[in-house]
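Researcher: I'm preparing a figure for a lab meeting and need a structural model of a single chain. I don't have an experimental structure, so a prediction will have to do for now. The sequence is pasted below. Please return the structure as C-alpha cells so I can convert it later.
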Amino acid sequence: MFRIIKWLIALPLGAFIFFNAYVYGNIITYRAVAPNKTAFMAMRMRQFQSEGKDVALDYRWVPYDRISVNLKKALIASEDAKFAEHGGFDWGGIQYAIKRNKQSGEVKAGGSTISQQLAKNLFLNESRSYIRKGEEAAITAMMEAVTDKDRIFELYLNAIEWHYGVFGAEAASQYFYKRPAANLTKQQAAKLAARVPAPLFYADNPKSKRLRNKTNIILRRMGSAELPESDMD
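Model: Understood. Here is the structure written out cell by cell.
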C-alpha cells in the first residue's frame, strides 16, 4: 500500500518537474529564437480538424520594430495597462478575478496579464481550471525572470490569435487590412486589439456592437498606454 501511495505521489511530481524543465529550456531558447509554432496554435488547429473545418495556419513572425506602435499601445490599453511596470502579475486584477469566480462558482475570469497570456499561448491550452492557472503562473514567473519586457511583448504580438487560423500581428494585419503590421493606423490597431479576448466570436460576428464599443474605448485609452522603455525613445 505504501509503495502505491509513493508512486501516486512520485509520478505526477516527476511529470511536473519534467514539463517545467522542458518549458524553462524553451523559454531560454525563445529569448533569441522565434517559435515555429505555439502549443495553442497546435491545439487550435487540431480542434478545427476535429470539427471538419478546412482552416490553414497563417503565422508570420516579424521583429518587434516592424510592428506599429499603434498596435502595441492598443494592446496595452486593452489587455494589460500595467505591463511595463509589473513583474508578470497584476494583483489587483487577480483579486477581482477571484471575486468573480467565487460569485459564479467556476473559473470564468483569470485576471491574466500579457505575460500570463503568452505563457498560455506558448505552452498550454485554453482550459479554465485552477491547475492550469497554477501552471500558467509558474511559467510566467520563469519567463519574467529571464526575459526582458520587449522580448515578452514581441513574442506575444506574434502569437496572438486573431481569426480562424490567423496568428500574430503580421498575419492579422495582412488578413484584415492588406498591409504590413508596421503600417497600422490607430483605428485599425484598436479594432484588432478589441478582437483579442474572443477572436473566433468576432470572426463569426464581425459587425458586433460589442466590438465597435470596445474599439472606441481602446482608442480613448491608447494615449495613456505605457510601453516598455525601448519604445519610449
